[in-house]
Amino acid sequence: MNYISIRNNETIPLSAIPELGYAAFLELNAMSLIKKASAHCVSYFGYPDNGKTRLICCIANDDQHIIYVSSAVVDGSGPLPSFSRQNLVFEKFEREIHENHGIQYSDHPWLKPVRYPFNRADKKQSVEGYPFFKIESEELHEVGVGPIHAGIIEPGHFRFICNGEQILHLEIQLGYQHRGIEPLFLEKKKLLQRSTLAENIAGDSVVGHSLAFVNSWESLCHFQPDRELKLSRTIALELERLAVHTGDLGAICMDIGYQLGSSVYGRLRTPLINYFQQWCGNRLAKGLIRPGKSDYPLTKTLTDELLRLLAEYEKDFEEISEELFSLPSALARFEKTGVITHEQALTLGTVGISARMSAVKRDIRSSHPHDLYGELQHQPLIKNHGDVHSRARLRKKEINQSIEYIRELIQTLHVARPEPASLAGPRAHSFAVSLVEGWRGEICHCAVTGENGELVCYKIKDPSFHNWLAIALAVRNNEISDFPVCNKSFDLSYCGHDL
Questions:
Q1: pLDDT truncated to tens, each residue of the chain (499 aa)?
Q2: I want to staple 79 with a disulfide (CB 3.0 to 4.6 A). Which of 104, 183, 327, 493 is the partner?
Q3: Domains (ranges, CATH) in the chain?
Q4: Residue among 434, 432, 436 at smallest CA distance from 455
Q5: Of 117, 111, 115, the residue nearest 98 (C-alpha)
């Protein structure tokens, strides 16, 4: 067998991953495994290995709930044929490998820098000299937005080529700010330091990234969390989804000038994040998710408060949502705006709502279930039109679904908790992969350990990594005034991309 099949949150010996010649590695992943309708690439990365670069590719089979893992070692002595020429879903993975490790490709269709990290292979390249695509014409004009943003978010630059008000092309350049998160996972040796790093990967996805880290770490350490620990983590993840989707609906309303919707959704979001403050002392849930334990277990007082909060929330949420989705002026801005077709969503390898809006049934909670999603028997919610309306509608429906999940889980909570088991050290020479369905989509953390169980590679993939190109395609032939609502309907992460 030229690959090994593993499941989500499984750890295997590094030696169990087949090492192929590059030609066979390319054919297996880019021309065979990925061709299956249910398959997609969850991670493809490289790391230094005895003076060379070891490549590891992880292809998920969503129907069979398994992940195919294979590897190759390359020395960078000459250009390689690219995966991306065979299948576009690999284009950004390979651009990152090229940027970080200096691997050259002979036929990559868009070999541009991704992030400009401090440890990039070619220090001569700088973000100021990014090679934007250009169209020479007296009739066309360029509009540059950013990288300094009007809001308090991370920097990013948007370069539009327009014919009057019509967008012909958009190129999005990120890579302006980095914290060096991945190298810090290797440098920091204390588990608390690494837990803190995980919850700061993306500030609006604290629970999602923290859960991916603790699941991968517990797998490396042979630790099996008890049901109550899984239950509290699942509730936290659904509560994060509920809160951010609510805020996003408010932001979408703001971008079409619907002040009532913006105000009401914004008000409804506040008590949800305030509940995290009550639960763990932080409104973004920092400190809540920790490997092997919980410093803030759910109590009956907390669950009673959450049930009361959801009852109050649900009434006003349904009322404002009925207003929003029956308002002709709102629907006129939502429908057929920022469309991604089913074929485009598959070609780009989109995840999360950015996939499900276009009838791509991609949701880790059902395809590779973690924590208590197997018990919930989660069914992904799907829309077909791929426009702003589909993305907004999905948020509304996922909020309803999350409320039901939280109520169902609370009914099975047993407050009495056993003494926490000890957390052993991670296994040596091992590989672990953890997938979590955050509110934005599929999060993937991969860990590789060395001879003493120390981390030698920690690879992070935020769902935004898959989805930024989708925005650039979605706005084509739309008016530039539609860009804000289109952008907010995706709501992708700058810092989760730049790491």
A1: 799 999 999 999 999 999 999 999 999 999 999 988 789 999 999 999 999 999 999 999 999 999 999 999 999 888 999 999 999 999 999 999 999 999 999 999 999 999 988 888 888 888 888 888 888 888 999 888 888 776 667 788 999 999 999 999 999 999 888 889 999 999 999 999 999 999 999 999 999 999 999 999 999 999 999 999 999 999 999 999 999 999 999 999 999 999 999 999 999 999 999 999 999 999 999 999 999 999 999 999 999 999 999 999 999 999 999 999 999 999 999 999 999 999 999 999 999 999 999 999 999 999 999 999 999 999 999 999 999 999 999 999 999 999 999 999 999 987 656 566 678 889 999 999 999 999 999 999 999 999 999 999 999 999 999 999 999 999 999 999 999 999 999 999 998 999 8
A2: 104
A3: 4-114 (3.30.460.80), 181-498 (1.10.645.10)
A4: 432
A5: 111
In contact, 205 and 493? CB cutoff 8 Å:
yes
* Spatial contact of 369 and 378, defined as CB atoms under 8 Å apart: yes
CB count within 10 Å of CB 384 equals 11
Provide the token pair at 377.
């028997």
Amino acid sitting at position 300: K
3-state secondary structure of 475: coil
pTM listed for this prediction: 0.95
Distance between CA atoms of 486 and 474, rounded to whole angstroms?
Answer: 8
38 CB contacts (<8 Å, ≥6 apart)? 61, 62, 63, 64
Can you tell me the distance from the alpha carbon of 41 to that of 472, in angstroms, rounded to the nearest whole number? Answer: 21
Half-sphere exposure of 170 (CA within 13 A, CB side): 26
- What are the φ and ψ backbone dihedral angles of 383, each rounded to 5 degrees? -120, 170
- The angle at the Cα of 378, spanning 489 to 302, to the nearest 5 degrees, equals 85
- The gap between the terminal CA atoms of the chain, to the nearest Å, is 35
Would you state the structure tokens that stand for residue 342, as one six-digit string? 């089913």
**Between helices 227-255 and 206-220, what is the axis angle to 10°?**
150
For residue 246, give the H/E element and its range. helix 227-255
- Give the tokens for residue 116: 């400009």
What are the contacts of 139-148 at 24+ separation with CB within 8 A?
139/163, 140/168, 143/480, 147/173, 147/176
